[in-house]
Amino acid sequence: MAITSRRRLFLAATVAWCFAAPPAFAAPDLETYRQLDQLMDVFERVRAEYVEKVDDKKLLEGAIQGMLASLDPHSSFLDARDFELMRTQTEGEYGGLGIEVTMEDGAVKVVSPIDDTPASRANIKAGDYITHINKEPIFGTTLNEAVSKMKGPPKSTITLTIVREGANKPFDVTLTREIITLRPVRYEVKGNVGYIRIAQFSKPTGPGLRKAISELQQQIGADRVTGYVLDLRRNPGGLLDQAIEVSDVFLERGEIVSQRGRRKQDIQRYYARSGDLTGGKPVVVLVDEASASASEIVAGALQDQRRAIVVGQRTFGKGSVQTLIPLSPDTALRLTTARYYTPAGRSVQELGIEPDIEVPQLSDPDLEDRMTLREADLRNHLLNGNKAGERLEEKDDKPDPRFQNVTAESLKKQGITDYQLDYALKLLRRINGTISRLAAK
Q: I need a labelling partner for 182 at 20 to 30 A (CA). Which of 45, 121, 203, 319 fits?
């Protein structure tokens, strides 16, 4: 009797939480009540009969995580530890290895190592699987548990076991943890070209980009700058407002991005303010399969506005918006609430951004063996809004005749260690040569 009463009380509270909402939400039907009753039955059976005593909080959090995991790979429940980790990452400083990971079929898979971190220095690559941490298998653990195990005190060591496509067998990599102080923006002079590398979209990114352009113009001379390379490769994304600010630096006017939810009134559009800080100089944007989210917003905006030429490989395809909904002072719900669309109305989700000029990273000796990972490869991923229900078609794998005789070894002999960047710089030289010839006529 006590169990029945407790279940009714739980169901009443659950239904009130789920359905005491604005009229836009559909009313619950009898099947929903039946499923909620079944959920409580399972909860009570586990509490009463599981082989060991279990914590109610752990069970309920597990139920919430399971509910959210059934939606898409990016919706999740953030407990106190996860909430704090997310905050420190967006602030621009945190402890660990400097590696973006996801969960695929119960295994931890690398999305991208972050520049100048233990992971990137150890040559960990996108598409690698992490199977063991300090010789202990992690298959079947949650992503949060795996990330927690990879964190630790600075200067402590950790050994990861890596499975890489093309490698004959798994291999171990030993790394030293450190405080990851992200420098989201780096820049240097390449002849008369300003090279700007953005590694992540955190709070310092926008101001850092403005400073970079100012410094480059001072070093080269504002009138002598022939163009800019904006490098967004291996950039996993970050804050929406920083993606808008970065795009705005290069644009004089026009839409940057829109986000669209389930209702027509949910559409939000973001526009550039007057003032192109580069003075309209040519821009090449470098992207690859690990350029995601905020990186794709910037690439898509500059591409659709015909402000830049996008060079590299098709991007990751993470075009969904996650809204942080606080549940308590130290927990929150991270829920997918909308899709991103470029100014031309293209949904980034699943499809990514196709470069104007496709250029593989031929200076990478592991290019052919390296496994690529994109949003469309993630289980239960959200479909593209424009092409809902359709799947991506496999591209023709015939070799591009432009690159048939180009190898990592031949490039190394020429002193080219970054083929995509070398291609971008030569492209800018060709563009400026054309501009000069037209001006002379």
A: 319
